[in-house]
Sequence to fold (164 residues):
Amino acid sequence: MSVFPHHFNTPLLRRRPIIHLGKTSVTDNCGGANGTKQQIRWDNALRADSGFDHSPLLNPSRIGCKFDGRVKIKANISCTQGGSARTTLMLYIRTNGSDENLRCVARNYSRGSSWGDISLNISTEIDVSNGDYIEIQTEVDDSDASYTINTINAQCEIIVERVE
Fold:
């Protein structure tokens, strides 16, 4: 007789597929005039389970889904501003290149290069179909001037997990 409760004797549940991507050498300029958009490119697969597709060379911003279901998305994008003007950046999810999911938008404000870096974080769930692809995109929401705002590669990541 086992000393563990009954639920410890049942087989482990099947692991949910995950893709975890980062950046090592591909820096994205997220700055520019108001309305400038930039898809974040990923060049480092920290974990890539079957169920997801990603190529660091061909469309490196895209994460493909090979199933119908729901995914949890967590992303962090850190940027450093090259100019002294104030800028507000937005971060959101796009599916299939055009559908912008604005239910989960992150914003952060920089007073300029003398005031430090900014970080944008999102965490949400969306429904996907087999063949869909997901991207993370920044947009200059408001800026006093057009400046370079580069990603800090060591502080950028995205994790997408199938939840059902």
